[in-house]
Automatic annotation (TrEMBL):
Compartments reported by the entry: Membrane
Keyword Phosphoprotein recorded: no
Organism whose genome encodes this protein: Lichenibacterium minor
InterPro entries named in the record: Cit_transptr-like_dom, DASS-Related_Transporters, RCK_C, RCK_C_sf
Keyword Transport: yes
GO terms assigned for molecular function: monoatomic cation transmembrane transporter activity
Membrane-spanning segments: 6-21, 56-75, 96-122, 134-159, 180-199, 398-429, 441-459, 479-499, 564-584
Top-rank taxon, per record: Bacteria
Pfam families per record: CitMHS (PF03600), TrkA_C (PF02080)
GO BP annotations listed: potassium ion transport
Keyword terms: Membrane, Repeat, Transmembrane, Transmembrane helix, Transport
Annotated protein name in UniProt: SLC13 family permease
Domain RCK C-terminal: 205-290, 294-379
Length: 591
């Protein structure tokens, strides 16, 4: 072993140790490791920052933006709406929701797909008195196996394609993962349909959302002539959101106010006072094609920002109405909704006198919104994400994604260009603001990868990869190709919970490829085994973002993950090894 190899291995070992220790953020550990690598001269200075310009960074960032655009569009909720009333029991909800997450994970980043369906799952659990803990972990598991079906579904697939290109000159393409991935996905859904019973019933951890959900919000909307609710009853309108939103009042002919009954008939031009939670209000406004009354010009331009805040002491709003304050004209903000503890708002929002402690949803197209909130002494609730009152462009994000996937499938453009173009087009179409797009991107993952890519190159360039491959080759000598493939997959799966899936793939990929070459075997199945093992981390809440995402809402404990994850991991290895061997013959030609 040379000095450079020893330094490279030592640096990787320390980095892994810090990851396992868990006291420092993963991205900070990776950045520190890159700095040490430069100082030790095992990472050449001229190549130190090439990881940040790698197309893998573009693919992941763009895929996250596209996923967010689809989530904000509401199209998934629209597709699911006819199905939701039929999902009344846990044994039906689990396979249905897990299957939907799995399908969406095939074409978007799996963490984005899971985030889209989590509110739907929580809504079902609340409505039918089922436990969220029975739904969320199976959905997370489904998102992981759905992600392994295509190149863009999960980071390990994107990374292993890069490893193949670096080692052998050609990356994996979009659908090279599909034959094995689809089979694993089908097995996963079949298991989850009964395996959810292994999970204990837990209560979700309390959150800032719960703390600030004081009472239902009241919003004011106009029933336009194009709305499907025109001529229908109040009960029909409320049924569009399955009773989660109620009509508290109707104002007709500007001043005539009616107390609605379920049989009250709705007319074009009616002003409706709607009561409910922001998510329900947003969905009803979109489905019934209502116009929120406080839009100003922000909605027309499609660049509005929505913020939820609390009216604090010394606010000039206290004791005055939005009409008296001329909020839109003087301050550039419109009142979208209002919530007040212990009081139901039954009058038009323009005539409500603000009180200390009122929770308001404000909308503005002004770039100086933070300053405006300061002037009004409104404290933003930073832990909440409210999008009520924003136009999300309906089916446009899904159509843009479909075009991008088609171009990739027919090899018109590469994956990076296709998803980069999709993200830019969605931003040009104002499906979200640039600020919201930046918030969508998981920057810690991008910095983690950007810093680790040069380190993985350092291990390879110093000959460390070949050295490890020889050592692993001696360890598996006499085991046979199929057993060796299984060992590689198990190692990747075992290391991922402690090392994170992206670093695992970056380190294990070159080792597995070199091992295959030294054994005279086709490296492709070994690279596939690394991607599948690293992409299917079901055992802990820390190895993958999808597992972390459901930890709080599901009320899970660390040990709960192994209850479902251990048998599922065994099934993935037992099925994955023969499947990979079948679709990617071990004795085939190297790429």
């Amino acid at each position: 072993m040379t000095l450079d190899q020893a330094l490279a291995f030592g640096l990787i070992a320390v980095t892994i140790g810090l990851f396992v220790w868990g006291r420092l953020p993963y991205d900070l550990v990776a950045l520190s490791a890159l700095l040490v690598g430069i100082v030790l001269r095992i990472v050449p200075e001229k190549h130190a920052f090439e990881g940040f310009s790698d197309e893998i960074i573009v693919i992941i960032a763009a895929a996250l933006v596209v996923s967010a655009g689809i989530a904000r569009s509401g199209v998934i909720e629209a597709i699911m709406r006819p199905i939701l009333p039929k999902l009344r029991t846990t044994r039906v909800q689990v396979p249905a929701l897990a299957g939907c997450v799995l399908l969406l994970s095939m074409v978007t980043k799996n963490v984005g797909a899971l985030a889209i369906f989590m509110p739907i799952a929580l809504q079902l659990a609340r409505r039918h008195k089922t436990s969220p803990s029975a739904l969320l972990m199976p959905m997370a598991a489904a998102s992981l196996t759905g992600g392994v079906v295509t190149l863009v579904g999960t980071s390990p697939n994107i990374i292993i394609a890069k490893v193949r290109a670096d080692m052998f000159g050609h990356p994996f393409t979009m659908f090279d993962f599909t034959p094995v991935g689809l089979s694993i996905a089908a097995i996963t859904i079949a298991f989850l349909a009964v395996g959810w019973r292994l999970l204990p019933e837990r209560r979700a951890a309390s959150s800032m959302d719960a703390a600030f959900t004081i009472e239902s919000y009241t919003a004011e909307a106009v029933l336009g002539p194009q709305s499907p609710a025109v001529g229908r009853t109040v009960a029909d309108l409320e049924a569009m959101q399955e009773g989660d939103v109620s009509v508290a009042g109707i104002v007709r002919e500007r001043f005539r106010r009616y107390a609605p009954t379920p049989a009250s008939r709705l007319h074009a031009g009616d002003v409706l006072l709607l009561r409910g939670e922001p998510e329900g209000l947003e969905q009803l406004v979109a489905q019934a094609r209502l116009d929120l009354a406080s839009g100003g010009d922000a909605e027309a331009k499609g660049v509005a920002t929505v913020v939820e805040g609390v009216i604090t002491e010394n606010s000039p709003l206290i004791g005055r109405t939005p009409s008296q304050l001329a909020l839109q004209a003087r301050h550039g903000v419109g009142l979208v909704a209002l919530s007040r503890r212990g009081t139901a708002i039954l009058q038009r929002l323009s005539t409500v006198r603000f009180r200390l402690g009122d929770v308001v949803v404000l909308r503005s197209s002004s770039p100086t919104l933070p300053e405006k909130l300061g002037e009004l002494h409104v404290l933003p609730l930073a832990e909440r994400s409210i999008t009520l009152g924003i136009s999300h462009r309906g089916w446009t994000p899904l159509a843009v994604l479909a075009v991008a996937m088609t171009l990739v499938a027919f090899k018109v453009v590469g994956v990076a260009v296709a998803f980069f173009a999709a993200a830019v087009i969605l931003l040009l179409l104002r499906t979200m603001t640039m600020h919201e797009a930046y918030r969508t991107v998981e920057w810690h993952i991008l910095f983690l990868l950007g810093a680790l890519i040069p380190l993985s190159h350092a291990v390879r360039d110093t000959g460390g990869t070949d050295l490890l491959a020889r050592g692993l080759g001696h360890a598996v000598e006499g085991l046979g190709p199929t057993t060796t493939l299984a060992v590689v997959m198990v190692i990747a799966m075992a290391v991922t919970p402690f090392f994170h899936n992206a670093p695992t793939t970056l380190v294990m990929g070159p080792i597995a490829g070199s091992l295959a070459v030294k054994l005279g075997l086709n490296p492709d199945p070994f690279l596939m085994a690394v991607a599948l093992g690293a992409g299917c981390d079901f055992l802990t809440p820390v190895g993958h973002q999808c597992n972390t995402l459901v930890l709080g809402p599901g009320g899970y404990r660390f040990s709960d993950y192994a209850r479902l994850g251990l048998p599922l991991s065994i099934m993935v290895v037992a099925a994955g090894v023969p499947l990979i061997s079948f679709f990617w013959p071990l004795h085939g030609h190297a790429p």
